[in-house]
Design goal:
It comes from Kuenenia stuttgartiensis. By secondary structure, the protein is α+β, with helices and mostly antiparallel strands. 26% of the residues lie in helices and 21% in strands. Strand 5 (129-135) and strand 6 form a beta hairpin. Bound molecules: heme C.
Amino acid sequence: MNKSKTIWFLIVIIAVICFTSQKRGTAEMPGINEKINAQRLWEYMTKENPYKCYPAWPGKEGIYESTMPPGDILRLYINDLALDTVVNKKRIFPNGSLLIKEIYTEENKLSLLTVMYKEKGFNPQGNDWYWVKYGHDGEVKLEGRVGLCIECHVGVADNDYVFTGSIKK
Ligand code: HEC
């Protein structure tokens, strides 16, 4: 296959996967409530309800540069629950909200993913966010109540720990 055929082939495959994946970023992750863990979350977000089909944060479609030095190349996916919170400025993300930030190298290769998943009761002092850092292949590098993540994101605790845009009216 030549290059453009290969690209079309991939586009069709992704479209079919997105279309046939029924929940398309809407539902809460099934069965995670008891024992949330990063491996389970990876299965969910890559196989059961593939995050590549999730919407973007409005105004942050496609790839863009981080506001923090050294200006990493990012792509942000949020599930429908999170999108509803952003669009309707609901002040707080509900249980099951999922935000996935991909970080790319300068050669346009996926290098890391940082993830926030809202799990009711997991960490009430930290608005119940479960924090994960994955390698590009899903290797779990950090997970849970990760001090490093929280110490920086706490600066926007009044925006439910989220930097990208205001979720308040
Ligand atoms: C030094 C500060 C800092 C640290 C440490 C940090 N972040 Fe962030 N994070 C940001 C900023 C700023 C953004 C907004 C996007 C941008 O400009 O990079 C962000 C964006 C995000 C987003 C998209 C939602 C949002 O808040 O806008 C997720 C998900 C995320 N970070 C997860 C994590 C995880 C998981 C960790 C720990 C492994 C982490 N972050 C550590 C500053 C930080």
